[in-house]
Amino acid sequence: MDSVTITNLLASMADKWPSAWVARTETEKFSGGLIKEKYLANLDSAGMGPEGRFRVARKVCYPVQSFIKWLEERSTIIENKK
Fold first, then answer.
1. Structural domain of residue 66, as residue ranges?
2. How many domains does the chain have?
3. At CA 78, angle to CA 76 and CA 82, rounded to 5?
4. Residue pair 50/66 in contact by the 8 Å Cβ criterion
5. Side-chain half-sphere exposure of 48, counting CA atoms within 13 A
6. CA 8 centroid distance within chain
7. In terms of pTM, does the model score above 0.90?
8. What Rg do the C-alpha atoms of the chain give, in angstroms?
9. H or E element at residue 2
10. pLDDT in tens, 35-58
11. Nearest to residue 52, comparing CAs of 76, 70, 29?
12. What is the DSSP string of 10-77?
């Protein structure tokens, strides 16, 4: 698996998402359980969360493409040791 594959997988996630944004409360669902709401809130408070977050009423949201970019930046490939 290489970075092109990770990019393709994340793009596929974005294509399947039915909206242009992801609510923080839905990040666990969007990421397949990888990113929890509270973890992301903690990262946001430390200035390390996805860019472009905004609030709609009481919900914090992220543009899908910003969230995908952030996931891609945090992803690394684990090489098999032989």
1. 3-74
2. 1
3. 160
4. yes
5. 7
6. 14
7. no
8. 13
9. none
10. 999 999 999 999 999 999 999 999
11. 70
12. HHHHHHH-SSSEEEGGGHHHHTTTSS-HHHHHHHHHTT-S-TT-EEETTEEEEEHHHHHHHHHHH---
Closest CA to 25 of 2, 3, 51, 57: 57
pLDDT of residue 1: 53
CA distance 62 to 48: 13
The reply to whether 56 falls in a domain is: yes
Give the tokens for residue 69: 């970019």
Q: Which residues of the chain have pLDDT under 70?
A: 1-4
Asked if the structure places residue 20 within a domain, the reply is: yes
CA-CA distance, 2 to 19, in Å (whole number)?
28
